[in-house]
Amino acid sequence: MEFTAREIASFLGGEIVGDPGQKITGVSKIDEGKPETLSFLSNLKYSDFLYTTKASVVLVNDDFIPARDTHATLIKVPDAYAALSKLLELYVQSLPKKTGTEHPVYISPSASIGNDVYLGAFAYIGDHVRIQDRVSIHPHVWIGDGATIGNNTILYSGVKIYPHTQIGNNCILHAGSVIGSDGFGFAPLPDGTYKKIPQIGNVILEDDVEIGANTTIDCATMGSTKIQKGVKIDNLVQIGHNVVVGENTVLAGQTGIAGSSTIGKNCVMAGQVGIAGHLKIGEKVTIGAKTGISKNIPAGKTYLGSYGMEASRYLRAYAVFRNLPDLFNDIHDLKKKNL
User: Which one of 230, 243, 256, 337 has the fewest CB atoms closer than 10 angstroms to its CB?
Assistant: First the structure.
C-alpha cells in the first residue's frame, strides 16, 4: 500500500501539521517507528517517543500540543486510536480474499451453500447445514448437522461447530474454538459414580460476535446457551451450559462462567475471572483480573479480589492488608509496654 499524509488526513477528516505530501507505505509502533510508516499516539505515557520516532506520520488526538518540534508529520484527529482502527480496517478489506472450494471437502447433499462462499480443504459440512453468503470456512473446519452460519462470518482453521448451533452475521471464530460441546452435567449416584445427563440444547451466537482461539461454549442442557449481539470473547474462555452473555460484553482470556449464569449488557471481565453457576450479573459491571464471583452483582458495580467484593471495600481492605506487618509490630510494642 502507498498513501500520502494528505490522502490519510482526507479519509479521516484530520488536520495535517507538517508535510502533506509525505509518503506512507506501512505502519509501525511509535517506539519502533521506521521511515515511510504511520504510527499513532493516544496514551500520553508514550509521548516521549514522538520526538525520537523514525515514523514519518503520526496520528495524535486533536487536543495534543507537542512540547517541542517533531520530525514526523502529525495528523490531528478526535481519537487517534479509533482513527488507526479505521485505517487498519480499510487495509484489511483491501487484502485479497480466498474464494471458491478447495479439495477435498465434504458437503452433505442436503446442505445449503450461499453465494461467494470460501470452503477450505478438508472442511466438513453436515446434513441440513445452511451457510449464507460471503462466508469464509477455512481448512479443517467441522460443521455439524442442522447448524446455520450467517452472512459474512469467518470460521478459521480447526473450528468445530456442533449440531444445531446458530451463528449470526458478521461473526469471527478463531482457530480451535468449539461451539456447542456438551455441558458439564453429571448426576451423582449412591455408589460414588456419576451418570451423564444428556445435553439436548444448542448454542446461539447473535450478530457481530467474535470468539477467540481455543474458546469453548457449551450447549444448553435444554433450550439455548446465548451469546448476544456484539459480544467479544478472548482466547481460552470457558462458557458453561445455559449461560446468557448480554450485548456488547467483553470477556478476557481464561475467564470461566459456570452453567446457568446470566451476564448483563456492556460488562467487562478481565483475565481469569471466575463466575459461579446460577448467578445474575447486572449491566455495566466491571470485574478485575482473577476475581472470583459467588453471588449476584447489581448493575454498574466494579468488583476486585480473589473472593470478589465491591471495589471500594476491596481497596480499603487491601490498604489494611498491605500494612499488616507494621500493624503487627505496633500491637507487639503496645503489649510489651503494658506488661
Answer: 337
Residue-wise DSSP of 123-192: -EE-TT-EE-TT-EE-TT-EE-TT-EE-TT-EE-TT-EE-TT-EE-TT-EE-TT-EEEEPP--EEE-TTS
Instruction: Tell me whether residue 44 is in a domain.
Output: yes
Q: Are residues 50 and 173 in the same domain?
A: no
**CA 335: distance to chain centroid?**
54
Exactly one of 103, 241, 278, 332 is catalytic; which is it? 241
Place of cell 442436503: 110
Q: Please give the average per-residue pLDDT across 242-271, as a whole number.
A: 98
Tens digits of residue pLDDT in 18-75: 999 999 999 999 999 999 999 999 999 999 999 999 999 999 999 999 999 999 999 9
CATH number of the domain enclosing 82? 3.40.1390.10
Q: How would residue 339 be classed by pLDDT, with cut points 50, 70 and 90? A: low
Within a domain: 337? no
Work out the number of other CB atoms within 10 angstroms of the CB of residue 325.
8
Of 75, 98, 78, 97, which Cα lies nearest the Cα of 3? Answer: 75
Backbone angles phi, psi at 12, to 5 degrees: -90, -10
pLDDT in tens, 286-310: 999 999 999 999 999 999 987 777 8
Domain that residue 249 falls in: 100-314
Residues linked to residue 155 through DSSP beta bridges, in sequence order: 137, 173
Pair (117, 46) in one structural domain: no
The answer, yes or no, to whether residue 230 has pLDDT greater than 90, is yes
Tell whether 335 is covered by a domain.
no
192 and 284 fall within a common domain: yes
